[in-house]
TrEMBL record:
Binding site for substrate: 79-82, 101
Keywords from the UniProt entry: Magnesium, Metal-binding, Methyltransferase, Transferase
InterPro entries noted in UniProt: RraA/RraA-like, RraA/RraA-like_sf
Residue numbers binding Mg(2+): 102
Cofactor entry: Mg(2+); a divalent metal cation
Organism, scientific name: Achromobacter spanius
Name of the protein: Putative 4-hydroxy-4-methyl-2-oxoglutarate aldolase
Amino acid sequence: MRTIHETGLTSTLLADAGARFLRAAVKPLRAGWTVRGRALTVSVPAGDNLAIHAALALAQPGDVLVVDAQGYTERAVMGGIMCAQAAASRLAGVVIDGAVRDAAELRQGPLPVFAAAVSPAGPSKTGGGSVNRQIQCGGVRVEPGDWILGDDDGLVVVAPAEMETMVAAALTKAGTEARRIAAIGRGELRPAWLDEALAKATLDIGLAPRESK
């Protein structure tokens, strides 16, 4: 069975194939970053990061740290020091539905970091939350061990049991898109499906004014 690690599939292809996708606010801090790996899940109370420290102590190489920080963006729950630890632990990346800080430092580092916001304020370490439990991150369910793929377009989640079906559907979609691009290159600018779709739709399409000759 091929995984998203092995196929080079993008988040857009997997989303079109039915993968769960995180809300658009959770983005890479640096353009061009990609992340692929299995989820190490963490949930923290708003503005607290003690559970993230606990998760980093358990992390294995290749894990993607996926943090439900409650979408709270007024206090960062990770920064340069913790991300340096994550990089040294050879994590594949960090995904936070919340805020990070030390953004310039993180953008220069080796670890792909995806977050909803940046804030200079630091976290508390009171506790609460969970590690390696089901969470809601970016509006979608994430289970420990789910596959995570992120790129410039966003992040998707694929359960291991869905992997084979999802990859097959995404590869089929990739083939369809490649054929359409080739057709455009041949000058076929009107997609074959358009007339049928327009016939079924209710659209108000006006005629563009033309200059008289």
